[in-house]
Amino acid sequence: MALAICRRFPGSFCGTPPRPALIKHHINKKLPGQTCEDCVLTGRMIHTDARMAATLKFLKPLGYQAFCNPFAYSATQSVTYWNVGSCTWQTEQDPPEHSSLCHPAKKVENINSTSSSQRLLTTSSALPGSETSRAPASQASTLKSGSPRAAGVVEEDIEIFDSFEDPRGFLQLRPEYQLHSYNRSETCQPLSVSEGELILHKVTVYQGNLQPQVIAEYFCKLSSLPAEQHHVVLSSTRFALLCQLSVKNIQLFDVPDLINILKAFVNLGIPPSHSMLGESRQVPQDLMQKLESLVLKYIDLINLEEIGTICLGFFKSSSSLSEYVMRKIGDLACADMQHLSNYALVNILKMFRFTHVDHVNFMKHFGQIAPQRIPFLGVQGVMHLTLACSALRVLDEGLMNAVAASLPTRVAYCRSKDIAKILWSFGTLNYKPPNTEEFYSALINEIHRKMPEFNRYPEHLLTCLLGLAFSEYFPFELINFALSPEFVKLAQARSKFELTKELYTLDGIVGTECLDYRGNRLSAHLQQEGSEMLWNLARKDMCSKPEFLEALFLLETMLGGSQYIKHHMILPHTRSSDLEVQLDVNMKPLPFNREAIPVEEEATLKLKHVGVSLTDDLMNQLLQGKSRKPTQGETESETEPRARELEKTAIHLGSSPCSMADRLGADRLACMQAPQVKLAIQLTNKNQYCYASRDLLGLHNMKRRQLNQLGYRVVELFHWEWLPLLKRTRLEKLMFLHEKVFTSTF
């Protein structure tokens, strides 16, 4: 059974009338003396009850258009790919699914590798206390009857995934879906080979004058050819011409015609990779908002497998669900997660990853059931669970250990995408499992074996290497290949992502941390381009945060001016900026930031002989050993601000009060001194840490490791300390910063 889905156009209505749909079967709610069989009958009766039936009201079309983008995956798009899925730079959407090139015979195209809801529904119904209110056991037991999956889960079956049938498994959970689905068993009038040739000939002759209805009719008739002729038709240039004509006239088709064309595609066996299909993941947002309203309206009547399907649909169309709806979904899943199929669980997690909603209770329940499911979940499903955890910054050691223990023996089933995102996830969460060496060795070796596939998807190789670098693994041979001019050119030309930042990050890591590396490096031009891109992003990000601007202003005030502190990226490849301060041998700040020094003063600072002008007043102070008394015109109130100014100077110098003239001379002398201590001040935020913890994520932990290697002392302005201080007095904030700079680092 296949599901034909179409979009509607102005002035047309969906081809099926409103029907009762999405009715929850309350099978578990027994009445006194009621048997399980009675419950099933009661549940079926409920859905016919007019009081309980929910009517699926089709949306009145406004102006939706059908989109066809045959080159959606081949076109170069400017998409931020950092954090694979999204971490602090999360705008990347999942690349198209693709199966491994190295193991085509094993049919390992296993997006979630659970054999859909069929397998888990069967196994779930066998568990003690299994709740069947969401899908009657009689239905679940008949899913794909006669197949090995219906008899139970076998090890060889785990990695098998039917990309056509499995996502449509939910259609068999309710009879209502058959009213809206296309049954492939429907028979139609067979078409002879000669009649098919005549149709293709007419396409060539009348191509400019074919009406949309005629085009749809031709598709339907060609789909009635004998099965052995389908390959001949699909490879025909005349059929390709018919496809082009349908694309050209796509906005002129009415709904029945579109449905008939989709039925013809099913019968002809057009593969997902065909230019007429694969996927652009675009949809009118007003349509998705109305669909979300329907989801919310009937959410208490939808079962968990349907919720998983809804989440997958929104995820695949790059459409978000509101936080409120996601929390409702999380609550429903928590109530019966032990009976939630792996397929639905993965799809719900995809949506949590996409929306970045932190449903604490859901993740808690997930952590309780996920580790024991890992051995029975295909590697693609394992990847999605792991990636969701890293995107949500949730470190569950039990889950990570189960993944690490399971993968080495199954790594051959991994696609390049799976390897990349699993390595990224472990690196992002900065976690090393007990079997670290076995785990990383297996995955690195598999990268070598799958290099032809990585050449097709160069972004995956860069993701692998960045994830490995976070975990302090640096396979020089792979790095040398990734930074070679040939691969760089390939990555820029073939990938749909803009990979300059990823290449620059990898190059910067190698240059900082791998001093014995002698392989390829990026060209100076690309290094400059990557540095500018990342600096612009980091500066824009930090300068939009009030807590950062306040810290910078107060540090400038405390130290004596902007020349004593510099906001820049010490390590540009780490994608975040720093506040650098340099101290001399006496632990006094140095005016090293020449960009902040006025031009007229810079020339003076370069003089070798520096000193203070000897005025009569200063000579009197030196000879008499005491300060002059205030003149008759100076009052007590006028001298007090000057004293406070000297005290401020003493604070930022970390010494006793001194005259401003002494300070000027000290500044000029210090300008020529080499710094004794270089401080890299980090203003942190919660997204740099694992969720609800103080454990840094991989990128930020790597940055601090590399700053130490360069001789910097890292000063942390922890967000849990600094943000509450923003509501306190200015003096309290200055005292806090003074302690951080001059006390806590030594």
TrEMBL record:
It is found in: Mitochondrion. Keywords: Mitochondrion. One of its GO terms (biological process) is regulation of mitochondrial mRNA stability. GO terms for cellular component: mitochondrion. The keyword Mitochondrion applies. Its main location: mitochondrion. This is FAST kinase domains 5. It comes from Canis lupus familiaris (Dog).
